[in-house]
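Whiteboard transcription, Tuesday session. T.W. wrote the structure tokens on the left side:
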């Protein structure tokens, strides 16, 4: 990398930190820190939802799939997410928002203690938080691999650089810092993605490359199903991603909660869905075309790095690397904020009585300290991991496979058709899905990816439906919450904290 490239990367980090510090003006309490009290415009919420859904893993692991097998990577990943988010725009997005607007909920898991009971909330919170530590560690490793490939910087330094910057602006600005930096990162990503696409087309046959390159690529690279990607795997991912990207991945529920109303949260989800269906095509075309420009690469994870170094001039490489950082920091920042919300609102008050009595300033300070602690823990996990195969293992075999059992009770608990499904259904669903995943992951040597991803979720879904049907329960408080989520409040005055008149308080609060 040239001095100009390093200047671009340095400017990027400076701007991100400046946005984070600017956002502190908008944060007065934990409601501002976690949900911005519903003041984020729907279009900004939609862009942030999209940006928070993927990281530099796209340019490492998914670039390898595109290099080795071609266009199937689009059908396997962004298309399933785009369709899933579009479905969730009508089922889940408005309901997440109304939890905040009507009940002052600041954490996606906060309502579970009333909807089911406190043990159910705690089980889902602890298992989800543990999963996020591993998930975010994979994101740190991905960006460090890219930085090492471009500039020969040791993995430890890459992890530390990205982690510390993210930690600083999130600890100061909370969700406002997250969504504002998401917007800036989207602009950078747009410029870098278009630059790479234009460079690839200029290297090959111009604009006609978009339809002429398919005959020159290796056989099968234009097929929707190829290599390890099967129709079954695509369908399994569609099911998983519908739950994961509509709130099962807690940070994305926050985006809906932060919109001004349920109807606008639906619009933000539809915008995110459209971006998922269109924008990744721009990013994936260069990855798919890479065998024509940099053939013979043994490790496909290096393909995008090789492509950029082959085609882009000084300055543009730095912009592209800033785009990689933007992906990772967008996702990790949003994850950090929502995990902080879960710890502050759902876990710490149960463990430490003093946390329950903190005032507004004390709660905000506690949230910022928790942000720093969580990011530090995930960085430590990344520093001591083996980067070879770690990313794909985490993304597919752990996160995608266990997200279903954690998200089924959380997501279906919002819907009126499952009001009679109580805590027994929720715990059975979670435990059964995790057990199936553990058996497949550790006990079945030749378990396929569709089995590992799909069976835990299907098991959880089946148990939730069956137990709820045969052992229905009725709770006045739980039913009241679900019934209240069908329409927006008439007045859009947003309570900053849970209100005893609208949300039955937990005994511990």
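and on the right, the sequence the group agreed on:
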């Amino acid at each position: 990398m040239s001095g100009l490239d390093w200047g671009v990367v340095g400017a990027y980090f400076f701007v991100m930190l400046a946005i984070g510090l600017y956002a502190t003006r908008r944060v007065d309490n934990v409601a501002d820190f976690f949900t911005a009290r519903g003041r984020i415009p729907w279009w900004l919420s939609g862009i942030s939802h999209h940006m928070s859904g993927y990281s530099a893993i796209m340019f490492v692991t998914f670039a390898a799939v595109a290099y080795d097998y071609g266009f199937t990577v689009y059908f396997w990943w962004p298309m399933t997410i785009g369709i899933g988010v579009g479905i969730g725009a009508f089922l889940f997005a408005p309901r997440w928002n109304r939890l905040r607007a009507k009940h002052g909920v600041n954490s996606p898991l906060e309502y579970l203690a009333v909807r089911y009971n406190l043990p159910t909330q705690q089980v889902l919170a602890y298992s989800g938080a543990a999963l996020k530590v591993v998930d975010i560690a994979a994101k740190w490793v991905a960006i460090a691999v890219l930085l090492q490939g471009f500039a020969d910087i040791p993995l430890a330094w890459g992890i530390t650089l990205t982690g510390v910057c993210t930690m600083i602006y999130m600890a100061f600005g909370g969700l406002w810092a997250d969504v504002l930096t998401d917007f800036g990162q989207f602009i950078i990503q747009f410029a870098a993605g278009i630059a790479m696409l234009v460079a690839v087309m200029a290297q090959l046959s111009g604009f006609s490359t978009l339809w002429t390159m398919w005959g020159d690529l290796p056989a099968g690279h234009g097929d929707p199903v190829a290599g390890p990607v099967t129709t079954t795997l695509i369908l399994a991912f569609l099911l998983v991603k519908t739950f994961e990207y509509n709130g099962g991945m807690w940070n994305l529920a926050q985006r809906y909660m932060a919109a001004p109303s349920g109807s606008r949260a639906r619009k933000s989800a539809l915008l995110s869905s459209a971006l998922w269906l269109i924008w990744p095509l721009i990013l994936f075309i260069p990855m798919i075309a890479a065998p024509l420009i940099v053939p013979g690469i043994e490790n496909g994870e290096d393909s995008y790095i090789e492509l950029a170094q082959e085609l882009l001039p000084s300055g543009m490489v730095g912009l592209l690397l800033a785009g990689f950082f933007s992906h990772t920091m967008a996702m990790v920042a949003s994850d950090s904020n929502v995990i902080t919300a879960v710890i502050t609102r759902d876990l710490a008050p149960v463990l430490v009585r003093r946390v329950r009595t903190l005032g507004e300033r004390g709660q905000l300070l506690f949230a910022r300290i928790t942000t720093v602690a969580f990011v530090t823990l995930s960085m430590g996990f990344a520093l001591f991991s083996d980067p070879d195969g770690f990313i794909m293992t985490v993304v597919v075999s752990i996160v995608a496979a266990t997200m279903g059992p954690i998200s089924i009770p959380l997501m279906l608990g919002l819907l009126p058709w499952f009001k009679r499904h109580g805590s027994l259904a929720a715990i059975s669903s979670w435990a059964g899905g995790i057990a199936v995943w553990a058996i497949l992951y550790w006990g079945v040597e030749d378990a396929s990816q569709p089995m590992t991803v799909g069976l835990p979720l299907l098991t959880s879904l089946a148990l939730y439906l069956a137990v709820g049907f045969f052992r229905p329960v009725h709770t006045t408080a739980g039913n009241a919450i679900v019934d209240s989520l069908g329409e927006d409040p008439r007045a859009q005055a947003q309570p900053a904290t849970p209100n005893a008149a609208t949300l039955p308080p937990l005994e511990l609060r």
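Someone added at the bottom: The radius of gyration is 22 Å.
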